[in-house]
Specification:
By secondary structure, the chain is an all-alpha fold. The chain folds into 2 domains: 112 residues, TerB-like (Orthogonal Bundle), CATH 1.10.3680; 188 residues, no CATH class. It contains 14 helices and no strands. Helix 1 runs parallel beside helix 5. The radius of gyration is 19 Å and the shape is globular.
Length: 320
C-alpha cells in the first residue's frame, strides 16, 4: 500500500466538500453535518473546519490530481459514493461528479467499485435489533426494553468503529449507520409508531446530520494516521447512545420535537455517551481483539473475491 501524505488527505476532504456543494448549494443541515463530523476527527495540521467549509472552491481536476496513492483514491471514491447515494436521492450533479472521480481514478485498485458499495446498501439481512422491540404499553417495561436495545447497539457499533481500516472501514461505517436506523425504528415501534424508513431518515437522521455525509467523512478520516481504534469506537458508541436517547425523547413527545431541539438534545446525550463509553472501553477492546483474526481473514477473502459482499456482511454480523 502506497503511503498517504498530508496533501492527499487535505485534497480528499476538499473533494467531499465539493460533493456536498455539487448541486450548487450547501444546505444548513449539510453544513452542520460536515462541521460536526469534521470536529470529531483529527484534521491535518493547520487545517480547521472553517478553512475546509468556507475556503474558495478549488477546481475538482486540481484536487483529484493531488490524490495519487491507490488507497486514498479508493477511499475517496467510496466516501463520495456513500455521500451521494445512501439517502437514495443521488442528484444528476452528484452523479456527474462521482463519475468524474471514478474516471479519473481508473488506475487505482478499487476492488468491487460500485458493485461492492451497492451490495453494502442492499443489506441482505435485517439487523436483529429490529425484532427486539415491539409496541409496549407498559411504560416501565418499555423503558427497560428501549434501554437494553440502546446499550446493545452501542456496544455492537463501538466494536465496529474500532476497526479503522482504510479501504475496508466503509463496510463497518455503513453497518453502524444501518444499526442506528434500525435502533431508531425499533424505539418508534415500542411507542406504537409504524416503521417507515423514509420518515425516520427525514425526521430524525436528517435533523441530526446522520447522513451519507457523516459516513463519508468518517470513512475518509481513516486516512489520517492518528484516527485510531479509540477515536472510532468512542464516536460510534457516543453517537449511537445519543441517537437512541433522542429517538426515545422524540417519540415520547409524539413526534413534536423540531430540528433545533433534536440537535440540542443530541449534543447533550452525545457527551453523556462519551462518558459511559469510558466504563465500557476495556470490554469493547477485548471483543475487538478477540474477533480481529477472523475479521482480517474475511477482509482477505473479500479482496480475493472468494466471498461476495453479501456473504461478507453475514459472516461479519455472525462474529459480532
Amino acid at each position: 500500500m502506497s503511503a498517504v501524505n498530508q496533501q492527499e488527505v487535505l485534497a480528499s476532504f476538499k473533494v467531499l466538500v465539493s460533493m456536498a456543494k455539487a448541486d450548487g448549494k450547501l444546505l444548513e443541515e449539510e453544513f452542520a453535518s460536515l462541521a460536526d463530523t469534521f470536529e470529531e476527527i483529527h484534521l491535518p495540521e493547520g487545517v480547521t473546519v472553517d478553512t475546509l467549509l468556507n475556503a474558495e472552491d478549488e477546481p475538482i481536476d486540481t484536487l483529484l490530481s493531488q490524490i495519487t496513492s491507490d488507497i486514498a483514491q479508493e477511499v475517496v471514491y467510496q466516501s463520495a459514493y456513500a455521500m451521494a447515494n445512501i439517502d437514495g436521492e443521488c442528484s444528476p450533479e452528484e452523479k456527474a461528479l462521482l463519475d468524474k472521480i471514478g474516471t479519473t481514478f481508473t488506475n487505482s485498485k478499487m476492488w468491487g467499485k460500485q458493485e461492492w458499495l451497492e451490495a453494502l446498501e442492499k443489506r441482505s439481512q435485517q439487523s436483529p435489533i429490529s425484532t427486539q422491540v415491539s409496541q409496549i404499553d407498559d411504560p416501565a417495561r418499555r423503558a427497560i426494553e428501549v434501554d437494553n436495545a440502546i446499550t446493545d447497539t452501542c456496544f455492537l457499533n463501538a466494536v465496529l468503529g474500532a476497526f479503522p481500516l482504510p479501504g475496508i472501514a466503509i463496510a463497518f461505517d455503513m453497518l453502524i449507520y444501518w444499526n442506528q436506523l434500525d435502533l431508531a425504528q425499533a424505539i418508534g415501534q415500542s411507542w406504537g409508531y409504524d416503521r417507515n424508513q423514509a420518515d425516520f431518515r427525514k425526521a430524525i437522521f436528517g435533523s441530526l446530520g446522520i447522513t451519507g455525509t457523516r459516513i463519508a467523512v468518517s470513512n475518509l478520516a481513516k486516512l489520517v494516521p492518528v484516527f485510531g481504534m479509540v477515536v472510532g469506537a468512542t464516536t460510534a458508541y457516543a453517537s449511537t447512545w445519543a441517537l437512541g436517547k433522542v429517538a426515545n425523547e422524540y417519540f415520547a413527545s409524539g413526534g413534536e420535537m423540531d430540528a433545533f431541539s433534536l440537535r440540542q438534545a443530541f449534543k447533550k446525550a452525545k457527551q453523556e455517551g462519551e462518558t459511559i463509553y469510558k466504563s465500557k472501553a476495556e470490554e469493547i477492546a477485548a471483543k475487538k481483539k478477540a474477533i480481529e483474526p477472523q475479521v482480517q481473514l474475511l477482509n482477505e477473502e473479500l479482496k480475493a473475491g472468494t466471498i461476495t459482499p453479501e456473504e461478507y456482511q453475514v459472516k461479519l454480523k455472525a462474529l459480532l
